[in-house]
Amino acid sequence: MSEIGKESIIEQLKEKGLKITPQRLAIVNALVKLRRLHPGARLVYEEAKRKKERLSLSTVYATLNELSRHAIIRTLQFDKMENRYEGNLEEHINLICERCHRIVDYRAPIAVDKREVEKSTGFSIADTRLEYYGCCRECSETREAREARHLEHSPD
After folding, report:
1. Is pLDDT above 60 for 1?
2. Which CATH topology does 91-153 take?
3. What's the pLDDT tens digit per position in 33-45?
4. Is pLDDT above 70 for 140?
5. What sign does the dihedral 85-65-19-50 (CA atoms) show?
6. Which of 45, 88, 114, 127 has the fewest Cβ atoms within 10 angstroms?
């Protein structure tokens, strides 16, 4: 799996003619550190602010949007939770826990050939995103433990 890396992001910023500012570096460092969490802007802001005191939340939003616009990272937009950001641009499934909102990447063993889809349908594909919603292992175990305790204490 291709992981988001600081050097890779910095190289891509340079290739696209974007300045490497101290604020952007703090944001990039936060993104790399938090990559497995698919962080939201506020979490990136809190982490980046530890390294760069003079940083605003609006700068974080603007930088994340710019990185996404230049296809360096991907923005995951949701109806019922804040946007999240990920650096894994390879084809994969996002497993999204409806209880804790954790997002985990799962590499699907079978990939769809986008060129074949375009050829057979005439549909020009710009981007893909596959998500499975449910309950992560930790939340499932917590729910099962609660249910077991409830059954133990309920009158017959």
Report:
1. no
2. Dna Ligase; domain 1 (3.30.1490)
3. 999 999 999 999 9
4. yes
5. negative
6. 127
**CA separation, residue 13 to residues 67, 72, 110 (Å):** 8, 8, 32
Q: How confident is the model at residue 126 (pLDDT cuts 50, 70, 90)?
A: confident
- Candidates 143, 41, 129, 130; CA nearest to 99 is 143
Q: Is 11 helix (H, G, I), strand (E, B) or coil?
A: helix
**Greatest C-alpha distance within the chain:** 70
How high is the pLDDT of residue 111? 76
**Strands of the chain, DSSP E:** 74-76, 84-86, 93-97, 103-106, 130-134
In angstroms, the CA 86 to CA 75 distance is 7
Question: Where do the CATH 3.30.1490.190 domains begin and end in the chain?
Answer: 91-153
57-69 and 41-51 helices cross at what angle (nearest 10)? 110
Q: Where do you find CATH 1.10.10.10 in the chain?
A: 6-84
Q: Is CATH 3.40.109.10 the right assignment for the domain spanning 6-84?
A: no
**In this predicted structure, which of 62-71, 116-125, 139-148 has the lowest mean pLDDT?**
139-148
User: Encoding tokens for residue 35?
Assistant: 């990559």
